[in-house]
Amino acid sequence: MRGALIVVSGPSGAGKSTLIRAALAAVPELGYSVSATTREPREGEVNGRDYIFLSREEFERWIEAGKFLEWAEYSGNLYGTPEAKVEEFLADGRSVILEIELQGARLVREKRPDAEMVFVRAPSLEETRKRLEGRKTETGDAVETRMATAELEVAARSEFDYEVVNRDREQATQEMISLMKRIVESARQGARR
């Protein structure tokens, strides 16, 4: 029995990480694939838990070695999904969540058309801006870059199988947990056929 490959994408500030953490806590059959990145860790982030932090040179060596299911450049940094860990989860019959940006989500969909695609967004672009500025982790230029990217990402939301609009954290959390349970159960049912 193989689990489901679940891709969660959406603009920065949409609350993807918060919703994913809640789903992982509520659905024991789910695993999380930690992405690799060349960006600097934010305060409180731990290497190997939040991201695998690599230098650009290390990341490029991983690309050359074919270690990524997908990788992309986003806001000047490289991000990628190590394929070995994803396959390990799926082979063990566990479903796995990937939190990746739009370009990477499209690459996964190309390689793995069976992937379940989930788009998470704030209720408006104005709310996205407010959340990004409220983080106080980026410069004004970085916020503008992320906002331009967010507009493109929101325009592509029809490419996804499911959408969670994060208006209210509690409601969005329950919606995400319910969705993950349905996807996991569907994978289990499909494996029984």
UniProtKB/TrEMBL annotation:
Which stretch is the leader sequence? none
Instruction: State the UniProt keywords alphabetically.
Output: ATP-binding, Cytoplasm, Kinase, Nucleotide-binding, Transferase
Q: Which InterPro entries match?
A: GK/Ca_channel_bsu, Guanylate_kin-like_dom, Guanylate_kinase, Guanylate_kinase_CS, P-loop_NTPase
User: Is Cytoplasm found in the keyword set?
Assistant: yes
**Per the UniProt record, which EC number(s) apply here?**
2.7.4.8
User: For the Guanylate kinase-like domain, which residue ranges apply?
Assistant: 3-181
Q: Which GO terms describe its cellular component?
A: cytosol
Q: What is its main location?
A: cytoplasm
Q: Which reactions does this protein catalyse?
A: GMP + ATP = GDP + ADP
Q: Which GO terms describe its molecular function?
A: ATP binding; GMP kinase activity
Protein purpose: Essential for recycling GMP and indirectly, cGMP.
The record ties this protein, via NCBIfam families, to: guanyl_kin (TIGR03263)
Q: What is this protein called?
A: Guanylate kinase
Please report the organism this UniProt entry assigns to the protein: Rubrobacter radiotolerans (Arthrobacter radiotolerans)
